[in-house]
Design goal:
Blueprint (H helix, E strand, L loop, with lengths): L1 H18 L19 E6 L5 E5 L2 E5 L4 E4 L14 E6 L5 E5 L2 E6 L4 E5 L14 E6 L5 E9 L4 E8 L6
Antiparallel strand pairs: 1-2, 2-3, 3-4, 5-6, 6-7, 7-8, 9-10, 10-11
Length: 168
């Protein structure tokens, strides 16, 4: 009986502690460095960074400040477009970003982007430059799948992207 009473009191103390936890929310806006207040997508990567896609750039938040990545037409290693619709991290640690003008991968070491654009003469290029979503797929040698939209015909297409990255 003493054990039952002791167990009951422990449960009461634990449950009170759990219910009394307070969560603090911090509102982050352009005043704190966000490139735009309209957020289209968010992703937390394996290193703890919060990636935020807006209509005006890709934002990386480290818990203290933002680093904003914007398209620069004179720099082929910048992100291809500022309208960000999806963010994903693959098993190699690359950050993949869907934009309104193609797909990009971000290399953390160089802090440069690689652009993947539709090329009608290349059957292996992405199917359209309007990238909608990214999804992990479980296939051999496959990193992710890309869902694109052909705005002229109103159709969507799923493209499986293969990588040539070395395995660890």
């Amino acid at each position: 009986m003493k054990r039952l009473i002791c167990f009951g009191m422990i449960i009461i103390f634990i449950s009170q502690d759990l219910w009394s936890q307070q969560f603090l929310f911090e509102h982050l806006t352009i005043d704190e460095g966000l490139s735009q207040n309209t957020i289209l997508c968010m992703f937390k990567d394996s290193e703890g960074f919060i990636w935020i896609g807006t209509q005006h750039g890709l934002n990386r938040y480290d818990g203290y400040q933002f680093r904003v990545f914007l398209s620069d037409p004179s720099d082929s290693t910048s992100i291809s477009n500022d309208y960000i619709s999806a963010i994903y991290e693959d098993q190699y640690g690359l950050i993949w970003v869907c934009t309104d003008y193609g797909l990009c991968s971000f290399d953390r070491n160089t802090e440069k982007f690689t652009r993947y654009l539709h090329d009608p003469s290349d059957e292996h290029s992405i199917s359209d430059n309007v990238c909608l979503r990214l999804k992990s797929v479980a296939m051999e040698n496959c990193t992710l799948a890309l869902k694109t939209a052909d705005l002229t015909s109103g159709t969507e297409k799923l493209t499986v992207l293969h990588t040539t990255l070395p395995t660890a």
